[in-house]
């Protein structure tokens, strides 16, 4: 069962109020990447408008002694491509990336005195080959839709922690850039007891102070 199914209200906080701020914060990035997004993105769902190569979105919500992370990353940032693996080498790259994403302790470092224990991870992606199944059950239009959708391959990762002393959670550090060097910026939106905070992390500045 996914984290969102277990903690609906917390996920609504992440996906709702935090994402709304994230769109505004990244508005300038969309104009800087027209060579990637162009006219096609203007006709896509708003979720795809936020898909900017080199930029990963991370939302963090605190509810009592629970901490929830939600990451959305372009496939190009994570594995270097945004389509289904074309050979064994790409399949291995994808498998390694999923393995890394399923270990949040490799992605984030929380203060020891916050006494946070990792409880659950949920990782998904859409870098799949739709032609491998139901190929004869779809018409030409559906096939074209899948091809277009495949151009927007991305990853989603959700992590849940339980923190016995969450009042000591005064900062969060990320090692994302070490594992996924194609990313040049991570936007952070935080919502907790202390209020809401936004920040942009880079390889040279990878800590958010709460």
Automatic annotation (TrEMBL):
Residues 29-49, 132-152 are annotated as: Disordered. It comes from the Bacteria. This is DUF2796 domain-containing protein. Keywords: Signal. Residues 1-27 form the signal peptide. InterPro entries: ZrgA-like (IPR021253).
